[in-house]
Structures are given as structure tokens and as C-alpha cells.
Write a structure and sequence with these properties.
By secondary structure, the protein is an alpha+beta fold. Helix content is 20%, strand content 31%. The longest helix is centred in the N-terminal third of the chain and has 31 residues. This is START domain-containing protein.
Amino acid sequence: MESTFGRGRKRGGGQVEIDHNLERDASMGSDKESDPGVRAYVGWVYHVGTNSLSYQYCHARYLVIKGKYVTMFKRDPGNSPQAVPIRRGVVGPHLMVEEVGRQIYHGRALYVLKIYSRLDHSRQGELACTTAEEAEKWVSAFKHAKEEVIYELRISFNMNRRRGHRSYTKGISKLITIGRGPESLLRRPSMVTQEPDSDSYYHYQREDIVEKEDWRCFHTVNGLRIFEDVTASKAEKGTIMKAVGVVESSPDTIFDMIMSLDKSLRYQWDVLTADLELVEEIDGHTDIVYGSFDPKYFKRFYSKRDFLFSRSWRRDQDGSYSIRQISTTHKKQPTRSGFQRIDLSPSIWEITPLPSKPGVGRPCSLVSQIVEVNSTGWGRWKKSHYSKFHKTIPYILLCRIAGIREVFAANPQLVSLGSHTKTQSFKDVKKVLEQTELIPRETTVLVESPPESQVLECHEEFYDAIMAEEQDEEDESDDQELLLKHHPKMVCSNHVLCIVFECHAASRIGKELDWNMPGVEMDFNLFNGSLRQTVHDKDSNGWSDPGGKGFMVRSRTYDQDSLKISGGEPLLKLVAVDWFKSEQKIGHLAKQPDCCVQSEAGRKAPFILVINLQVPAKPNYNLVFYFVAEKPIRPGSLLDRFANGDDAFRNSRFKLIPSIVEGYWMVKRAVGTKACLLGRAVTCHYLREDNFLEIDVDIGSSSVARGVVGLVLGYLTNVVVDLAILIEAKGEQELPEYLLGTVRINRIEVDSAVRQ
């Protein structure tokens, strides 16, 4: 789909300078009044839902977001000057947008967004996109619009108090489209790209920890390398194996092929699990499928086999995908006569974008499939000197990557020809906005554009405008709905090279705290939490501080060469950890009288950072970390701008790096090792008072995060997890990055949580 955003700055002679920096100003919003440019987003989406007769509808619509105003058209107003909006609304401070996930409409997989009121969840509507990346960008568009509304309300309130109300419509100088129109989707692959200087939320990043696995290649076949994890084999009952191959296609397209239930497509590459049918769709990120196969091609099998497994997927912020597959049971699919029910080996698909080949421009992806081989079958295979491995189910599963690669090689039309960014001129921006009635015709779009009163007035909230299908909207004879065809899709990403250096980010740490201020004598032993501190790595049900050497952060030259370095020692000291459970979700823990922040030692601390991970379960859990600074924050530093800035800036910079040090291999893969901008992935609430900043991280606000946490909770007593907290650094003045704090959680017991 196509999003447009840009800013206009008034220059000498009344000209407008195009600003190619598409992210929020990094200076805490302090310069917003001098930068009045407003983002605008345009592009094709699908308006989806269920009508009064309980039938699904899915209509292609052209969406425009400019400032707080949202309009929806049947046609692109740039190509149809007579087009009029069929829906219009405003983005209010209570609007919420959530990724629902992957859903099937008229046989086509779409990625659905739910737009609703925070005060009344029944007031909601749904839009859908053709790729997960397009959905993420539209989520970002609505969030940016909401942030602008909240900011303008705050400024308007202050201005009214000082010199009376004054409102302007801000100018736009550049238009960048998200995706392509439905007409193009029927003819050629969908292509979604991001400008090199756009928000790093869409940029690719390699793993942000130092991996401890020991993968050894023991077999090559059909251009694939097959590995064994020697470290995991020694520690676990089974053996972990993976196949790795390079496929000349985008992660989006490969993901769709793996998830597709179209038998005619799967028969081209999937030897074992091609015959699949949907049993139940749990949510937009999890489903259960049933399949069967005839073993006549495998000599060791004689009767027909069937199987049932669940699929859970997620899309990381770097554009890569992870698909988790585990055998399961379901009441709708009992065992069938004439079939032997088997359990397929637990497996995970990982699809990671790679740089395109020089001079070719075709997207490439690294595709891996990791499979757990049970100990019995593995032992038999080893005893027979691996001679029969090519006849086993794990081998057949691992070789499917070669099938995917050959399908794309034989069908070049499935692969996009390269990146494409559509940037329209200032004149085109003005034309589009005039045709969408967001500015009057024959009006110059400069910094001080016409007042808002001259803009098309609309006071209905957008989630109310799209709540239900309007009959008269669909009855016009000239409205020919575009059919949802199966078509390939792609996304291009930027790439980051990660190299380990024997250096760290200590040079940056010295600039964050005011070391000239007198120190405060503190006894860190006076900070008490409900979870005990462990002494040895083998201790259970406790916490420790692992330090930052195992985490990778951006180097001083990251903008030039994308290099990363060891994180070094964290800036803040971890002093306590709480492990709570309650019937209700708990926030603002730092204000409670029995919290260590309110203790005598806590009140003496120059600054305390409180991270409250709100874990959704029955009951709810809270894992709370307390990090203390030994010196006051230096004014003007990155930490100062984060601690005392606005929520929009915090959301764009608050980063977490996870690492499962010990645990079940599938938990390791599900959690991942890549840095995550938590403010973008889940809802974060910030409380800045006195000498502390509390960040309440609502993990339940994301269905993907809920699924991962649910898996982790099942293995919690056997898991050792390291977490690193940091602020994302951008630009020469902020680099290199440094770690705020690190924590290790050692095999905690669920029952040990203290009830609140």
C-alpha cells in the first residue's frame, strides 16, 4: 500500500525545502513549533468486515491520512479528479490501532488492522493490507497522526491560556506511497520499500547478542547445508538440526508460500505436508492445520499417515519472519480409519532478508528450517552410520527449502525486480491534497496554509466511520470491486552488518551522567525486592547482573559502516527485582508505599529507572526491574531527553535486547536475539515523577508477544534469560550506543510470585 509523509519548511523567497528525514525530531519535540510540517499518508487498503447478513466483505479503498483527518475513496483521486470521499473521520486522542494478524478473506490471506476506541471497544472497524510490512506502516501512520493530535491539544491549551486560540493547517512537501494500487496487484507483484533514511523501525538488524550455539555442517544436498547443534545435542535428549539455503525472493513472498494452503502451489515444493486444510484459526498469528500423505514414495512406510499441528508466526521489526510448528490435537480432527496419526518433529522456519546481488536487484532471503529429532530415531540413524538418513521424515522436512528455491527459480514472475520508492514532487502533493479535499483548490501549500476552518470539516471519529458496511456505498453500478487474486508480494529492506570488536561503549557513558556533581552515598543492599539475588549461575529462582559483553550495540561509525560493538558495562546498576501476581494488571508500582523506590535508600538515589513487564496470564504477572544511577543525569544528554521528553520520543527509542541463555531450543528461537523497539511493538505507559521514571510494558497489547510469553511460561523453570535495556542512538552526536542496564533471570518458579 502507499503511504505518504513529509514535512515543509519555509525558506527565503517563500520556497519550501524538502526534508528527507521522515522520523520525529530527536530533540524531545522542543523544536516542533519551528517545524510545522505535517505527515500525510496515502495508499490502497482493504475495508473488511462482516455485514448484517453475516457475509464477509472486502473492498479495495484508497485511504488518505493528513494531519488528524482521514478520508476513504473508491478510486485514487489522483487518477479520478471527480472522486468524492465515501467515508471520512478524524483521529482523536482515544483512537487505538492494533495488528490483528493474518486472516483469510475470499480465499486470500490479508493482514488486518483493528481501529477502535480505547473507551468503548465496541466502536471499531477493520482495514487490511496485502503484506505484514504494509500493515506495520499503516499502524505507524495512525500512531503518528494521534501523536500530532495530542501534541496540538497540548499546544492549543497553552496558547489559549496565553494569547487566544490560533490554528493552522501545516504544509506538506513530499509524498511517498505505501505499496501499489489493487489494479497493479492483479498484474504484477506488490512492492513495498522504505527510503534509506527512514525510521530505523523498518531497518534490518542482525542478532544483537553473541551466539553460543555450535552449529556444525555434516551434510550437503541440492545446494543446501544441513547442520547439527552440537551444544544442544549434549544438553538435551534429542538432536537439533537445521537446513540453510538462499532463495532469490523476498521474506514476504516466501512466508506466503510456506503459509499457503493452496494445494496446487504446495505440490510444487512440499513433498510431505502439501495436502493441508485449515482446522481452526485461533487468532491472526496462530492456526491449526490437518494434513495427510501417501507413503508410497518412502519404502519404510506402508500405510497412509496423517498429522495435526499448530502454526504460530511473527514478523520481526527487521522484516524477517519466524514460523513455529508443533504437533497438537483437536476435537474436530480425531483419528481416521485407515490412517496412522504421527507426530511431526517440532520445527521453526526462519526467513531473513539478505542484500541483493550486485547488478541484479532481485531480493534475496536466507531461509532456515530447524527441526528437533527425537532421541530414538536419531540413535538408530547414528548406529546405521547415517546411511538411511535420506529416508527419514526429518530429512524430508529439511530438504523442502530446495523445493522453495527451485519454484522461484522456475517462476521469475513471482519475484519482484527490485526496490521501488515513489516520491512525488511538491506539485503532485498539492494536486493530491486538493483532489482529496484536504486543502481548497488554488491554494499554495506553505508553512502557513489556510486555517483549519477552511479545510473539509469532519467531527466523526474514524473508527465510527468504518464500523459497518453502508449499503448505498456498495450499490453503485460503476463500482467494480477488484477481485482478490493470489499474487506474489515482496518487501525490500536495508541491511546491517554486525562485526564484533574488542571495544565497548564506555566513552559514551561518561557523557550521560553529571560526574561533576557530588556523589550520593548509597548502600545498594538496602534495595529489597521479592525475588532474591543469586550468587552462582546454577542457582534457581533468582536474578543476577550478567553485564553487557554479550550484547551488541551500534558503534560510533554505525551510520557509515553499520558496525556493532560489545555493549560493555551498563550505565545503571541493577539493585532489585520484583516478581508479583495479581488478578488485575498492575501499573505505577513505583508509587506504592512498599516499593523500594519509596524506601529511604530509594529517595536518596539521583535517578531510578523502573521497568515493569506486565505479563498476561491467569493470574497476571509482573516482572519489575529497578536500575539506579550513581550520579544525576546530565542536562541535554540522550538519557535526559528520554527521561524528561514526551512519550512519542520515548516510544521511538526505547529498545530491549533478549537472549535465552539456557532453555528449550524452540523457546530460544521464539524469543529471538534481535533488538526490539518496545514502544513500537507493544503499548508502553510512562510515569515520570520525583527521581524515577517507570515504564509499564503491556505485553498483552500484542497478540504476537502474548503467544511468545505463553510459550516461555510453560518452560519458565528451565529457562535462563538475559535482557538488556537501552536507548536507540541515531546520528553522530548520539553514537555510540550504550546499555542502560542488564538483568539475568535464573529459572524462576511461577508459584514463587508474591500476590499483590
